[in-house]
């Protein structure tokens, strides 16, 4: 896999920014500590065990899910002879962090852009690679969820939930999301992938809530 220097920087910044945003959103206590530290001008309070744990958990679950989702797009695109690179959207990363401070989360950190001659099928497979990667990651995190009551258990539970939600959201057939490209290629493949990913995401969301 080939990476440009700017691409590596964009991936690292997007990973860290998303990790911070998800940490604030998923752990209300961490969000309160960060807001209080910024309001009082006491940055040392930001390096507390609660924030460190929340950030580590977020980086290892949501961050990994995002990173491997994008790398899957890049790998498949390059496999088809495309010139592919990730570009972070710094405006959207700012919105992700700002929305997390406000108590909700809207994250669209960037995307893999590819160019070159390509068929509709190949374009659909490139798009499908991201959500499928998140489904595989969810299955990989599942055994860790058995370690209930400790950090490994938290990683497992959040890893399953976040990756199922990422897969389900990205399979929506709207705008620039992966689902629209898959649908343009094959209705059958789209329906199967959408039912599996969105169905799993809805189950997790309503069965366990945002806290998984």
Can you characterise this structure?
It is a single chain. By secondary structure, the chain is mainly alpha-helical. 71% of the residues lie in helices and 6% in strands. The longest helix has 31 residues, at 49-79. The two termini are 34 Å apart. Keywords: Membrane, Transmembrane, Transmembrane helix. The chain crosses the membrane at residues 7-26, 46-69, 90-113, 125-148, 155-176, 182-206. This is Peptidase M50.
Biggest sheet, open or closed, and with what strands and sense? 2 strands, antiparallel
How many strands? 2
Low-confidence stretches: none
Mean pLDDT: 85
* Strand percent estimate: 5-15%
Contiguous helical run count: 8
What is the strand arrangement across the widest sheet?
1-2
- Classify the helix fraction into a percent range: over 70%
The number of domains: 2
Helices and strands, in order, run as: HHHEHEHHHH
Name the structural class: mainly alpha
Taken from the alpha-carbon principal axes, the silhouette is: globular
The radius of gyration over CA amounts to 18 Å
* End-to-end gap: 34 Å
List the helices and strands and how they pair.
Layout (H helix, E strand, L loop, with lengths): L4 H22 L1 H13 L8 H31 L3 E6 L1 H13 L7 E6 L4 H22 L9 H20 L7 H8 L1 H22 L4
Antiparallel strand pairs: 1-2
Helix pairs in contact: 1-2, 1-3, 1-4, 3-5, 3-6, 5-6, 5-7, 6-8, 7-8
Describe the structure concisely:
The protein has two domains: 1-118, no CATH class; 119-212. Helices cover 71% and strands 6% of the residues.
């Amino acid at each position: 896999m080939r990476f440009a220097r700017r691409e590596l920087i964009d991936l690292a910044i997007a990973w860290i920014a998303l990790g911070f945003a998800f940490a604030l959103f998923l752990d209300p206590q961490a969000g309160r500590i960060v807001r209080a530290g910024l309001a009082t001008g006491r940055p040392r309070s930001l390096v507390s065990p609660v924030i460190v744990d929340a950030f580590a958990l977020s980086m290892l679950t949501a961050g990994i899910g995002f990173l491997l989702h994008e790398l899957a797009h890049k790998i498949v695109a390059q496999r088809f002879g495309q010139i592919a690179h990730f570009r972070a959207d710094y405006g959207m990363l700012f919105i992700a962090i700002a929305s997390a401070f406000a108590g909700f989360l809207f994250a669209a950190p960037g995307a893999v852009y590819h160019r070159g001659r390509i068929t509709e099928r190949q374009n659909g497979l490139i798009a499908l690679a991201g959500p499928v990667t998140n489904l595989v990651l969810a299955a990989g995190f599942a055994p860790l969820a058995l370690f209930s009551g400790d950090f490994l258990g938290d990683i497992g539970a959040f890893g399953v939930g976040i990756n199922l939600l990422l897969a389900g959201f990205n399979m929506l057939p709207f705008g620039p999301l992966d689902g629209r490209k898959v649908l343009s290629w094959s209705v059958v493949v789209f329906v199967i992938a959408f039912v599996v990913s969105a169905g799993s995401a809805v189950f997790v969301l309503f069965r366990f809530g945002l806290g998984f």
